[in-house]
Amino acid sequence: MAPRFFGVRGMLEGIRSFFKELAETHPKWNFIYIYDPVQTERVLDGLWMTIQLSVFCVILSVIIGVVGAWLQGSPHRWVRAIVQGYIQFFRNTPPLIQLLFFYFALGQFTPTITAADGWTVEPIISNVGWAIISLSFFAGAFNVEIFRAGIEAVPVSTQEASESLGMSRLQTYIYIVLPLAFRVSLPALNNNLVNLVKTTTQAIVIAVPELLYQLVSMYNDYSTAQNACMVLMFVVYITLVGILVLGMNRWERAMRIPGYGT
């Protein structure tokens, strides 16, 4: 074990030395986050925040889409009007403006709590919370329409058959309509969720310490690291989106019913 440990440690030291020398000989390619432990920690913190932001937004936006699509079929006109108003508002305004509106406008009405030190006053919803809420509602508006289209692809006779067996409208939706609609909706849902993951970078405008925020701060401190930071940004998002697309494609194949939907 010891020789292997020292071999790995020596290899890591060699990599750090290589990139440190590269920064000295080619100043425009300063991969400081590889050989400087402090900057490495900043990148890891930013990456972890990006992953958390993406996961929470994806889950919440799908929930919003599922619930919103069900409410669109409500027998009450005012419920359908509210859902339609929500869709039009979030689909027809830029997500960047929505982030600023939620954080600076609605954030002014957020209740506050006193911190443990007894002096600092903090809002109940932080900038990270507002980013999750805003981006989830933005993507959720598109998900509502995606699931609505999937629901319309389910034959009416199938829904009538479930109702004839005594199932309520909610039971029909959960056990019959939604599983079938999901299969039809997955390709479009895949595209929207990929777009959502990429849109999380806009959280930088309300100082959410995700990856882009950390990398911009880094090359503001070390101007020679700009190119290296953007390379890392590109690689990380290609990887995140690739993992999401791979997972969605496998889920789509697993849920495929021969002769139905996709």
What does this protein look like?
This protein has 262 residues and is an all-alpha fold. It has one domain: Orthogonal Bundle (MetI-like fold). The chain has 10 helices and 2 strands; from the N terminus they run αααααββααααα. It has a two-stranded antiparallel sheet. Helix 3 packs antiparallel against helix 8 (169-199). The termini are far apart. The model has no long low-confidence stretch (mean pLDDT 87).
Span of the ends, CA to CA: 51 Å
The mean pLDDT is 87
CATH class: Mainly Alpha
User: What fold name goes in the CATH topology slot?
Assistant: MetI-like fold
Rg of Cα set: 24 Å
Basic shape: globular
Quick one: CATH superfamily?
Answer: MetI-like
Number of domains: 1
Percent of residues in helices? over 70%
| Category by helix and strand content | mainly alpha
CATH architecture group name: Orthogonal Bundle
Summarize the helices and strands and which ones pair or pack.
Layout lengths: L1 H24 L6 H4 L1 H35 L5 H15 L3 H11 L6 E3 L6 E3 L3 H26 L3 H9 L4 H31 L11 H11 L4 H30 L7
Antiparallel strand pairs: 1-2
